[in-house]
């Protein structure tokens, strides 16, 4: 039972990480759509609706939830706050917080979103470089850890008598 619960926890954690990764890959598109909508004079509710229509899942679902919440009478600030808490992405949180602050202070949202878009684009580039280098290191570690077993098999196939000493004598067992 404990193993099943652990595996379920690991699977849920992987799904959450996958969702955050998908959202991070879509966030620059969402910021562009949102900024363009605001620049054309649309309200925040209309901009949220545009993002929900023009992006793919899972980001479109989040913006649909925000739009539905506002349609049901929840304030825009509260709907954005709930959405920010649901998604554990720093880039998404930055975007949502900028919209919330701009909405409450009256700052020019399009300028703020332009700067955030540049920042998020740079972050995404850095994360992708880090992922590539990490994958390279993991592959190197895997290869280095497997090589001794291949050497043992190779020597056993070439000289079974030499390898037999490792398995049949006490000193060979200690060395092995």
Question: How would you explain this protein's 3D organization?
Answer:
It contains 8 helices and no strands. It is an all-alpha fold and 176 residues long. Helix 4 packs antiparallel against helix 5 and helix 5 packs antiparallel against helix 6. The relative contact order is 0.08.
Residue windows where pLDDT falls under 50 for at least 5 positions: none
Q: Strand-residue fraction? A: under 5%
User: Roughly how many Å apart are the termini?
Assistant: 36 Å
Nearest-angstrom radius of gyration? 26 Å
Counted by DSSP, the helix tally is 8
Mean pLDDT: 85
Biggest β-sheet description: none
Order of helices and strands: HHHHHHHH
Helix content: over 70%
Number of strands: 0
Task: Break the fold down into its secondary structure elements and pairings.
Elements: H1 2-39, H2 44-54, H3 59-71, H4 76-86, H5 90-105, H6 109-158, H7 160-168, H8 170-175
Outline:
It is built from eight helices and no strands. It is an all-alpha fold and 176 residues long.
Relevant terms:
mainly alpha; 176 residues
């Amino acid at each position: 039972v404990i193993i099943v619960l652990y595996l379920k926890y690991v699977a849920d954690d992987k799904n959450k990480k996958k969702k955050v990764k998908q959202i991070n890959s879509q966030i620059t598109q969402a910021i562009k759509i949102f900024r363009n909508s605001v620049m054309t004079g649309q309200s925040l509710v209309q901009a949220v609706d545009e993002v929900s229509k023009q992006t793919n899942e899972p980001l479109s679902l989040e913006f649909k939830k925000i739009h539905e919440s506002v349609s049901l009478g929840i304030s825009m600030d509260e709907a954005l706050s709930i959405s920010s808490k649901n998604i554990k992405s720093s880039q998404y949180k930055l975007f949502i917080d900028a919209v919330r602050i701009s909405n409450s202070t009256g700052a020019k949202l399009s300028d703020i979103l332009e700067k955030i878009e540049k920042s998020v684009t740079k972050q995404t580039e850095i994360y992708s470089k880090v992922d590539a280098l990490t994958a390279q290191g993991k592959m190197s570690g895997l290869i280095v850890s497997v090589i001794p077993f291949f050497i043992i098999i190779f020597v056993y196939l070439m000289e079974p008598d030499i390898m037999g000493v490792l398995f049949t004598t006490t000193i060979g067992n200690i060395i092995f």
